[in-house]
Amino acid sequence: MGCASSIAARDSRQLGFPNSENDGGHDAKNLRVKLVLLGDSGVGKSCIVLRFVRGQFDPTSKVTVGASFLSQTIALQDSTTVKFEIWDTAGQERYAALAPLYYRGAAVAVVVYDITSPDSFSKAQYWVKELQKHGSPDIVMALVGNKADLNEKREVAVQDGIDYAEKNSMFFIETSAKTADNINELFEDFVDYATSRLPPDILAA
Ligand SMILES: Nc1nc2c(ncn2[C@@H]2O[C@H](COP(=O)(O)OP(=O)(O)OP(=O)(O)O)[C@@H](O)[C@H]2O)c(=O)[nH]1
């Protein structure tokens, strides 16, 4: 079973800590983050989610059909809990028209490209523009260069990712769903980044 199909099998399953009292705002101990993943087909979106939620990697990952949803709750060092509600969208062109259904309600978006594919970097830039035009005006975005384990096949320089992210006020990180490098950091550090930029009530649990 591939990353995408493994995710589908766990559709809607709640992991992690049970919900507890909401004390609201940025100082809340419990945050809820509606997150959408966008990017070209094959860049590794489903594998990133599967690595984050289950700690697994499947090299035979299947393409996502439509989108898949799952949630994961983590505890940060200051004992804040963060419940991620993740929409993993399908990157294939034929599903492009569905994307607005998922990104419209999202407070944060993660746009993924593959560091070995300049085309996927261009596609990521397309998604960033689309979100800037049609996403929530407050949306906070991350740019993720995945497949960092394939450094010897790299065709997108780290600095190009950093520069584009900076120009567009985005969080930036390179990850590997295969080795797990920076996967937890992506979610944990991005939440940190987003909480300091979003209006106080948006991430209240
Ligand atoms: N080497 C390497 N391969 C990866 C990594 N992440 C994903 N892959 C591989 O890339 C392929 C596509 O991964 P998926 O997660 O299914 O890609 P996707 O972006 O969800 O694709 P769509 O569902 O079509 O949008 C699979 O063969 C994965 O095994 C990574 O970090 N490193």
From TrEMBL:
<dbReference type="GO" id="GO:0003924">
    <property type="term" value="F:GTPase activity"/>
</dbReference>
<dbReference type="InterPro" id="IPR005225">
    <property type="entry name" value="Small_GTP-bd"/>
</dbReference>
<dbReference type="InterPro" id="IPR027417">
    <property type="entry name" value="P-loop_NTPase"/>
</dbReference>
<dbReference type="GO" id="GO:0005525">
    <property type="term" value="F:GTP binding"/>
</dbReference>
<protein>
    <recommendedName>
        <fullName>Ras-related protein RABF1</fullName>
    </recommendedName>
</protein>
<keyword id="KW-0547">Nucleotide-binding</keyword>
<dbReference type="Pfam" id="PF00071">
    <property type="entry name" value="Ras"/>
</dbReference>
<dbReference type="InterPro" id="IPR001806">
    <property type="entry name" value="Small_GTPase"/>
</dbReference>
